[in-house]
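Re-run with default settings, no changes from the original entry. Doing this only to confirm the output is reproducible before filing.
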Amino acid sequence: MADYIAETVFVTGATGFIAKHIIAELLRRGYTVRGTVRDPSRAAAVEAALEKAGADTGRLSFAVGDLLSDEGWDEAMQGATHVMHTASPFPMEQPANPDDVIMPAREGTLRVLRSAHRNAVRRVVLTSSTVAVMYPCEYEADHVFSEDDFTDESLPGLTPYIRSKTSAEKAAWNFVQTTPGAPELTVINPGFVQGPALDGDLSTSLELYRLMARGAYPAAPRIRFPVCDVRDVAAAHAESLVRPQAAGERFIVARDETGLFALGRALAAECPDLKSKIPKFQLPDMAVRAMAVFDKRLRTILPELGRQKTYTSRKVTNYLGLSLRPGEEAVRDAIRSLRALDLI
């Protein structure tokens, strides 16, 4: 068992897929953890999932926190030395009002940072995304995306989710750069997050398999995106607490690429009984754009059509000392966990 560490890490959005893995990683390393939930009745389910995954929850507690309300944040964060801000909406379908996603992400991030500042927190680690990196105004065809790149959220056609992650991250950097005595900031930019589910409260990225298992996608758009393992994302957050060189830095956490058609084939390989349900072919981009008029779920991936993105994640190895799992392993373990949980 890890030695006890007399530090408390405050983790927002404790019910989330990534957050649960972060909490488990922190508990294994000996930290005391306080997680936020909007509904206190959900705390027991989080604790049960973590215990089932082998985490000792004796140093875990919960507090209520709503990203759209100031109430309770200062009291909940009191005594925390570090903050992991993971909470942010990621809808399966794009909302009719983009601010339903953008406002909680941006204003919630600032609300957490202001409270961290008032509580003299040393460092905040923010969970962002590669979507806050890979949509600049212009780039060359051979461009290799890195942490130096930022999405231009004013570009037409970007989904509210992409705009929300970008706006929130930029607001965070602006806050720490303009606020005297602000906490140090480190940002983690994961790709499409895979890896094992700990319970049935699934992320949008894993919910895709349940949709495929029901035959919701007889064909798949021709898109590809960076992929990562949630266990590596959790380790990157934990390493960012203790590495001095991580302060003021962003880290792309991703290895390899995948796409919806490839995910379907992986699902069929692990669950042959679902082979008849997976996408049978890839759709031309024009057909996807036409179908998205009627299927709101497809609007989420429209910005990916026709885009080829090469990226580097060397920085997460050089600064944080992490060796990332292959994308195929992350996808395989995600599917196996869903089957073990009887969710597909």
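The first helix runs from residue 17 to 28. The longest strand covers residues 184-190.
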